[in-house]
Amino acid sequence: MRTTRARTGRGRRRGSWSVAVGAALTLTLTLTACGPEDDSAGGDDGGKPVASESSAGEHKIRIPDGVRDRLKEHGIDLGKWENGAWRKWDKDTWLRKAEDYVNPIIDGLWDPDRMRRAEDPQKKVDDGDLADDRGVTDPAPAPVEAAAVTPPYHDALPEAGKVLFDSPEGSMVCSATVVEDPAHPGKSNLVWTAGHCVHAGRKGGWYRNIAFVPAYNNAGKPTAELEKATREEIAPYGVWWSDWAQTSKEWIASGGPTGGAGAPYDFAVLHVTPENGGGKSLEETVGGALPVDFAAPSAAKTASLTASGYPAAPPFDGQALYQCPAKPGRLSLGPEQPTMYRIGCTMTGGASGGGWVGRNADGEPALVSNTSIGPVRGGWLAGPRLGKEAEDVYRAVSDKADNLS
Predict the structure, then answer these.
(1) CB within 8 A of 302, min separation 6: which ones?
(2) Helix and strand tally (H, E) in the chain?
(3) Residues 230, 124 contacting (CB under 8 angstroms)
(4) Fewest CB within 10 A of the end CB: N or C in the chain?
(5) Is there a contact between 364 and 348 (Cβ–Cβ < 8 Å)?
(6) What start and end residues bound the annotated signal peptide (predicted)?
(7) Distance CA 38, CA 53 (A)
(8) What is the tens place of the pLDDT at every residue in 284-296?
């Protein structure tokens, strides 16, 4: 989620929802996502045809067919990229447009320590952003205490996991959900998250080294034990790199680290491929995928939604999976923007992108939103109400999948 305040230090963490608020009436909203960290190594191939492969020390970069040419078009030298050029965020070379997405796989980049120490990205909104709400916004909901999911997480929520990525501020983390692919029933490689977990919005571009880890820390090990955990223990279902991602044109045009602009369109869909190859899809590997409901009822007609995620800002540390079941209300950020869902929930930064699950017309569980913003002190979350724009993004990534396989 996104906050309005500068990040404070908690060990290596730079982002926090618990920052002191300067004025009592200031409302600060945060994107629940990720945070900076050391640059190490880790990567994945996904079993696709390899057009280029080189090595640097213990790591190597793997480029599926077609990606190498796109990299060259953007002036990216593969050898330099692998050896650290991806850490350079020059605004003149930061890829920004929807069609510019490239995400070369670097073997070993997401090692256990790097995964564990990635932090949450944040977005802020102050009370001025809520001033012209057309009288639509409901009273702020009472906080709902986030409940820890009983491990193993895969048994309770096989579709849930983390999105890891690198930003100019360092290594970051969001939450995400495996969703069905209408073009590949039972064999989906699609993941739903927040737009601010993949793209910086109006003043930035695509983040790098984007990967999905289903059932992160599946056994629910305490943080102290994770310091010595193997990659298999932290990522029992593997690391899945995003070979394609798409977010809304509205997020790219207006989204940012502060203010409410873009938040009602703060969603994204990833197509992923397994780091270590293999013939099974993500859905087959984890044993499930949620349908997405683009015709979900309004907040007034919705009895309950359940938000899930890995909150990372204090008092949480990003290593455990939590849930908040709550009755949704409405949040309006302005007369020109769609109304968002809002629920009471104490999850903090890191939960961004996590799925909100309700019941579809058939009474079956379905994803109806994702966490986007929340106040810096915690207490509630807001997520976009998914409509035509979200469905267009979803269908476009599904259609793209055949060209990536």
Answers:
(1) 296, 327, 328, 341, 358, 368
(2) 9, 19
(3) no
(4) C
(5) no
(6) 1-33
(7) 25
(8) 999 999 999 999 9
Distance in angstroms (rounded) separating the CA atoms of residues 189 and 291: 13
Confidence of residue 78 (pLDDT cuts 50, 70, 90): confident
Beta bridge partners of 246: 269
240 and 272 Cβ atoms separated by less than 8 Å: yes
Give Cβ neighbours of residue 155 (< 8 Å, ≥ 6 apart).
none
Average pLDDT, integer, range 376-388: 88
Q: Which ranges in 98-198 belong to alpha helices (H)?
A: 112-117, 153-156
- What is the strand order of the sheet 147-148 is part of? 147-148, 322-326, 305-309, 355-359, 365-370
Is a pLDDT exceeding 60 seen at residue 52? no
Amino acid identity, residue 234? I
Q: Residue for token digits 């048994």?
A: 155
301 by DSSP, 3-state: which?
helix
CA 180/CA 196 separation, integer angstroms? 22
Helix (H, G, I), strand (E, B) or coil at 160: strand
Question: Helix H segments across 200-350?
Answer: 223-226, 231-234, 249-254, 282-286
Amino acid sitting at position 346: T
Give the 3-state DSSP-derived string for 37-87, with helices as H, strands as E and coil as C: CCCCCCCCCCCCCEEEEEEECCEEEEEECCHHHHHHHCCCCHHHHHCCHHH
Residue 158 confidence (pLDDT) above 90: yes
Instruction: For residues 371 and 313, give the distance between their C-alpha atoms in angstroms, rounded to a whole number.
Output: 15
Whole-angstrom CA distances from 299 to 22, 219, 242, 324, 391 are: 32, 34, 32, 16, 19
Residue 9 scores a pLDDT above 70: no
Residue 260 three-state SS: coil
Distance (Å, rounded) from C-alpha 18 to C-alpha 22? Answer: 12
Nearest-CA neighbor of 165 among 226, 110, 236?
110
